[in-house]
């Protein structure tokens, strides 16, 4: 209950540190009978993997996943699926010099307040490396949702600094290292990241994620709403500072006549609500946006203190992403998948007898 | 597990419908020994109560809370505290005509898909009336946090439509029906709400909420982060579509050198992070913003369908707030209090032996 | 999370004290569409009600249940069902003299160690009166199980002191105040209870409870086994000190050839396992036994101490059952029902796609 | 939520199958600062390990545990501790012939009903091999409890078939392969097990487990009582069919004057209650008994059916314990430790402010 489990029926418990033996997770609650092997998981890990372009951290991790349990004769058995990814390219000596110092905007200071001890090597548990476990679990959730409902989950970057990626060409996303669906902006992004690296600075990002073919009826009203759980899941990604569902923060200046999604026998006329009303999916596309703060680890020195309380100047070296948002898309997709499968299982637990309402429009 | 409980150690289970016998909640996990009576809860309910000004719904509810259990000789005993607020001013006949029709952007359509049945009277369970139970529970959490840590929680409106309430004079908030901390904008708000009502329209809002004197160390990294739980809690409020912690969505265009909060022996030099790094409180003020969509119940007709799937024109009558954001502040404060007390209890469960880290700066 | 909720999908949160405003519970997770009114619950409460014969406590409680929420037009809506039973016959002055004294084998001493405060009136939260809330919730679970699977749950007393109630005539159980299925033993039981009351003493009991027509496949292996959850549920009843599934403690002297239940195409040849193997129901009758300690509140004085640590002689007056086991049957039935409905919902969450195994024998 | 996690604050999630890659668990919620290495865990695993005497299964497993995460510089960090034990001596071909057949009293039939698929090799997930993960987790709990409160947990066998091990000499337990505290009975036990093996039969057992120096106040009244959680934990061990706390099933024939534990300023005069009243520890020794059914895997043929529903004769070969109770003691100790640490953490979450009641007697 230290908060390393997500989900109430499809429960994913994450473990591992950036520079320990490895990272992984246990998935408890995956339905039996799903065809599954490492080959279903590895491609998602490869999308998130560090060191794949010069725009992200140069740490080289193969990120090879091993299924330790829960699969027999190529199918899930309904028992816990344990996944393990060994760390291989730790360079912990890079971190010796920050052992006694708190890096600004990092978890360092908060960890020492909470635990009285911290694994300073590469951020330890607070490293974005932990998200590999989420991506692995999400790959299983994605597969189940796709086979069961035809649900497709995908994401892209919408904004980095002042660069807006506006047209959305989904086929472009996998063609560049930025998860950018607007190919025209790729050169500008390349230039920006190069410049930041040379300046010793970093930048934030706004990203988009969606799920199509989500069945209606998912989400529990009042607290465990589908939108609340998506907000929780996205905000739990390292460095995320804001989450929007549907029109998001812009609703503050919208009128009721403008925001409402009218219904017709042929379907909804718009989707301002992001596919969710009253905390429950309507059957429309579920979509969200989230903003990621600029990487805290930068080479421009900043004021800090050490464990003795003395003032010091802090300059973070090591191998870091100038924009942590760049590799967030596979993670956000995974988190959305984990929320949806959990609610799909919850829904059928309580509502399996319900004859789906008529009319059903989308 | 239909999602009507929030909290892992300070667990609040909400029940009740807008036009049923009443609403209430059971609080399981309140520490023993807290002085408590109805008089500690009623003032918070009065802040949220409908019918108190002409700018909000004219439903007249006394919202008198009764403590059914868990308090003996004026103190909490550590056993469940059940709270009950009877409904008194239901006018269910107002809703007969919408019995067969789905109101656009309401939960109606989603509920029927999920449950195959819905209590159409006043929104049933999806009514904002349910938030009274949260406010009642939050009053207890607030009291405990104040006595234990000196934590103060407060909120205000920041934007309604195009009206921005910029200067923050906390003493003004209780002096107007808008929870507006910028007295100069009150006349404009009055005019806007009057106009919307006459036009049969509604408007969204952006609001701010903060907690001061939050001890460092609250929040569990990875999933149950303090920021993730705040996002969950605020997004679970009816009509909320976006949540921001610290700099929020604006981080997308910020640089690392600009966003990071530098540390000195005398404390942090800024608070862009909203008092949370790595999912854990730093001891700085925790603050968040959230956006609430315009009220869905408006008198301007809109396209909809009925339960037979036939097209119809929908015009919602009944007694509604032109801006549901107006009464959201006490609810958001309560939700923040519920998150903080839960994490305070979780923290001492796991970390009670930790000698708080030195240095401790704020 | 102070442990007042049972169930992971059909969650029952109990509240209330013996001499407070009332007792009740909130049921979160009941499927929608179940026909329900107070009339479905009251008969079960009447079976447990005090004061119905001279062999049990003479406290007169009507135990009238009110459904506060979750039911609309005579059907459950899928939202929380809150139930309230007001206390009416408290005589708290009976308890003034024990205010400062710990009654031997009561929860008094442990409560003060845990909470530093206790509601001494009638046992407060530790009173068996709390079980009325469980019976009320169990009535709903029973109804759903009966309608869905034809499951029938029933119980009886097997032993009180040296009196064994051996032949099992289910029609006799409701014909005597002892829930005794062996009518020949009723006069002996009457004589025993009368004698104990005059002697100022009390007696323990062993009871039996079973569920027929339990579908196979319920129960989660490893921890949340069906048998482990039944043990938990029965041991959570006040005064229970032992729980047996199937052959129970007697397996210690059994051989494998004797204990195993052989399978044939026409079904199992025996049911030593109590309808559960590997933690999962087999489709056979699920049955258990449990032992209840003698009532602690007796008029024969015993050694004790007061809150100042001084020795004192303790003689409990008030209105008490000479054998708390006498009224336990409806409670145990309710607990078994709560476990079964919870696992039925869990099963369909995870295994709804499974085509039930062939062969299916019972 | 398929039930592979135990604990609410000290959460242990178990994974793995008898003949898969390995078994293990993730512990989420272990307080930081506990000195920990594999050397703290291995001795407990060695006590449970198969193949150590001719009286138990001849499977040879080194049961070497690896700590994958959560420990840094020899201390726990408060983050999840993942433990992995690789399987090395699987002989899955032993199981080919039972692939299509249900072994009587095994989980086979129930698994196929539940999941539609089963890992038949060595019992898969239902194998007692899974308990190694529990023992590993329990070793950590034991260490924490010992350091924090001086709590000692130990167990022994009390009865195997008709052989009763009555005098309790704790120093003898580790001197024989039966966990027998009555050295005089060891030869009889040796003879019995030898005879059973030659007869192709097996036998049940009754065992005892206790914890001394348990602080008062642990346990949550009503549902999550300490006794209910112990019953749950012990009944969750493979093959357990009965659990007793304190006097256990014998209370059925006891009088109130006989069963109650009187209090004096110098402490309790007896401990019939097993150290728990009202679901809360009193500070006395907590003790329980549990009965384990005879091993289901025996070489005497029995009636069964195959997956096609045809009658067959079943004779289980492979390497099995003639008495599964023989190796249960380290598992039961571990389960008791897991329950106690969980309640210790829960207690301080809610009751950390309570000034322990005076008087405190034991």
TrEMBL record, chains A, B, C, D:
It catalyses: 5-O-(1-carboxyvinyl)-3-phosphoshikimate = chorismate + phosphate. One of its GO terms (cellular component) is cytosol. One of its GO terms (molecular function) is FMN binding. Transmembrane segments: none annotated. Its EC number is 4.2.3.5. Homotetramer. This is Chorismate synthase. The gene is aroC.
């Amino acid at each position: 209950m230290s908060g390393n489990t997500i989900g109430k029926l499809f429960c994913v418990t994450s473990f591992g540190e950036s520079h320990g033996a490895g990272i992984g997770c246990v998935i408890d609650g995956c339905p039996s009978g799903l065809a599954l092997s490492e080959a279903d998981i590895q491609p998602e890990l490869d999308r998130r993997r560090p060191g794949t372009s010069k725009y992200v951290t140069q740490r080289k991790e193969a990120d090879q996943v091993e299924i330790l349990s829960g699969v027999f004769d190529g199918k899930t058995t309904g028992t816990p699926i344990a996944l393990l990814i060994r760390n291989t390219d730790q360079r912990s000596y890079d971190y010796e010099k920050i052992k006694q110092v708190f890096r600004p905007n990092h978890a360092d200071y908060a960890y020492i307040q909470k635990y009285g001890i911290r694994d300073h090597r590469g951020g330890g548990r607070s490293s974005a490396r932990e998200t590999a476990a989420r991506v692995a679990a999400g790959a299983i959730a994605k597969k189940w949702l796709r086979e069961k409902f035809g649900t497709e989950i995908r994401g892209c970057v919408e904004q980095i600094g002042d660069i807006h990626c506006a047209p959305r060409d989904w086929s472009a996303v996998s063609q560049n290292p930025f998860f950018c669906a607007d190919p025209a902006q790729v050169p500008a992004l390349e230039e920006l990241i190069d410049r930041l690296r040379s300046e010793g600075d970093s930048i934030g990002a706004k990203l988009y994620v969606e799920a199509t073919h989500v069945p209606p009826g998912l989400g529990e009203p009042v607290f465990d709403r589908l939108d609340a759980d998506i907000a929780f899941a996205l905000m739990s990604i390292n460095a995320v500072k804001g989450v929007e569902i549907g029109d998001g923060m812009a609703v503050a200046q919208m009128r009721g006549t403008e925001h409402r999604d009218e219904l017709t026998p042929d379907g909804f006329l718009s989707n301002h609500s992001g596919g969710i009303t009253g905390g429950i999916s309507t059957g429309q596309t579920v979509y969200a946006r989230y903003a990621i703060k600029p990487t805290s680890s930068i080479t421009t020195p900043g004021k800090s203190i050490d464990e003795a309380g003395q003032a010091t100047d802090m300059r973070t070296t090591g191998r870091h992403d100038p924009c942590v948002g760049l590799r967030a898309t596979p993670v956000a997709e995974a988190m959305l998948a984990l929320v949806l499968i959990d609610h799909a299982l919850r829904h059928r637990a309580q509502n399996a007898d319900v004859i789906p309402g008529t009319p059903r429009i989308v």
